[in-house]
Every structure is written in structure tokens, then in C-alpha cells.
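[Discussion] Sanity-checking designs against the backbone

I'm trying to build intuition for which residues belong where. Below is a C-alpha cell string of 271 positions. I'd appreciate it if someone posts a full sequence so I can compare it with mine line by line.
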């Protein structure tokens, strides 16, 4: 089991290095305070990643025969350890640096997974993810988005914080509600209008200064029903594994959205 885990982590780190770090020069180990950037969407990404990696690792360790608490701690801390390695890679990149804010988010995600397993032997409150591609129309903004977030769909899904939403999905039945066991209620957080970490002014490769501060940077809060696929009864191991993967994502559903500007609107389907 440990060799499988190491192999998966190693291959994913190699892929991440190619997608994220390859285009930037290396530097000496240094710190970087990015707590105020990207309306904290990057921190939500760290919470999600540490939580989900720990959760999936815990499921793998469930079948090893180790004592239950050892499975939980080893599996749960795997996510935190993996994200810590990424933070060290950041520390040696000229574009970023070691961020204590990121490490705090990593610890929160891993802690949320571990504490629920220890208390309830299940995940009653799950961290989920959704993303929908954004088409940038303004030529300068489109070029900026390509520079920041890449061109391909996988790159955009990973990097474009404007397109992402992170969710806390609560299983109501587990807390005593008289509803179907698979029905969840989720609260989400997203953001929009971000073309730089802290503001919307930048200089392109030709030395031309672009000031798009008129584009509002908004926080978005959501309320939406969700599905906990692991609560759907099945005896097939393959289906159970598929349900674990599906639970990584928020199920598309109607949603209410409230922005930091006070605007309230509904979505027939939101993902």
C-alpha cells in the first residue's frame, strides 16, 4: 500500500511540476505572504486538496488491516504531507514562496477529515469542488487569462480561480434530519473579476500597462442541494470506488448566489 501511495504521489508531483513550475526560474528558499491575494480562493484550494487527498488515502488504508486510528492518521496526514511538499516547491520558485497561510489551510483541510473520522467514522461534512470554464471576450483580458491560467481545459480548471467554487456539503440525515440519506445541503464560496492576485492592473510582455480596475472583484456565496453518492446502497466494489470519485465534485443543481456587492440571484443549474 505504501509503495502504491508513493508512486501516485510521485507521478502527480511530476505532472504538477510540469504544469505549474516549469516556466518559472528557481530561487533560494524564501517566504511569501500571499494571504490577501485572489480573495483567498487559493487558500480554499489548499483546504480542498489536503482534505480530499487525505480522504482518498484513508479509503486506501481502510483495507490494510491496520488499527482504525492508525488508518485515519496515516491516511489523513498524507494529504497534509503532500501539500507541504508542494509548499516547499513554492519556496524554491521565483514566482512564489513558502506561505504560512497555505500551510494553515492545509492543516485545516487535513484536520477536518481526520476529526470527522475519529468522531463519527464517516465524513458528514465534505469539502467539494466545481468549476465551469469562463470565456474572456476583451482581447487584453483574454491574453491576460491565457498568460495566467493557460489555454487547455485541465490548466484552466486547475488555475482559474474565477471559474472555481469550493463547497462544504453537509449530510443532513447524519445529523438527524428526516430526509433521504443521500441528500446533502451545500454552502459554496467563489470569486470573480480577478486578473491579478491583489488588483487588476498589470504590464504585458510588450511593456504596455493595462488598468482594468473598473472590473469589480467580487466574493460569491452559494446555497445549493447536493448528493452524497456514498450513501446510495451498492455491493459492487467498482461502483463504490466510482461513488468516492464522484463525491469529490459538487453535483450540478439549482443554487442561490449572494455576492459581496449585495446582489442576490438564482441559478437554475450551477456547477
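Best answer:
Here's mine. Compare freely.
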Amino acid at each position: 500500500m505504501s509503495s502504491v501511495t508513493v508512486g501516485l504521489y510521485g507521478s502527480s508531483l511530476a505532472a504538477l511540476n510540469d504544469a505549474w513550475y516549469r516556466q518559472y526560474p528557481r530561487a533560494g528558499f524564501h517566504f511569501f505572504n500571499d494571504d490577501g491575494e485572489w480573495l483567498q480562493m487559493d487558500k480554499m484550494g489548499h483546504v480542498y486538496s489536503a482534505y480530499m487527498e487525505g480522504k482518498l488515502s484513508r479509503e486506501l488504508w481502510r483495507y490494510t488491516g491496520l488499527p482504525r486510528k492508525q488508518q485515519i492518521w496515516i491516511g489523513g496526514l498524507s494529504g497534509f504531507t503532500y501539500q507541504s511538499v508542494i509548499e516547499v516547491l513554492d519556496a524554491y520558485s521565483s514566482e512564489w514562496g513558502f506561505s504560512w497561510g497555505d500551510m494553515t489551510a492545509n492543516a485545516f483541510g487535513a484536520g477536518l477529515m481526520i476529526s470527522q473520522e475519529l468522531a463519527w467514522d464517516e465524513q458528514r461534512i465534505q469539502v467539494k469542488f466545481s468549476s465551469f470554464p469562463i470565456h474572456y471576450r476583451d482581447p487584453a483580458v483574454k491574453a491576460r487569462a491565457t498568460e495566467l491560467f493557460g489555454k487547455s481545459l485541465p490548466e484552466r480548471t486547475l488555475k482559474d480561480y474565477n471559474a472555481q467554487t469550493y463547497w462544504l456539503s453537509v449530510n443532513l440525515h447524519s445529523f438527524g434530519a428526516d430526509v433521504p440519506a443521500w441528500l446533502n445541503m451545500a454552502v459554496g464560496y467563489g470569486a470573480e473579476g480577478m486578473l491579478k492576485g491583489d488588483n487588476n492592473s498589470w504590464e504585458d510582455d510588450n511593456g504596455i500597462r493595462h488598468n482594468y480596475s473598473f472590473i469589480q472583484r467580487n466574493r460569491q456565496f452559494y446555497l445549493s442541494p447536493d448528493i452524497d453518492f456514498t450513501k446510495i446502497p451498492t455491493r459492487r466494489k467498482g461502483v463504490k470506488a466510482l461513488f468516492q470519485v464522484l463525491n469529490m465534485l459538487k453535483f450540478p443543481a439549482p443554487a442561490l448566489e449572494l455576492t459581496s456587492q449585495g446582489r442576490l440571484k438564482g441559478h437554475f443549474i450551477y456547477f
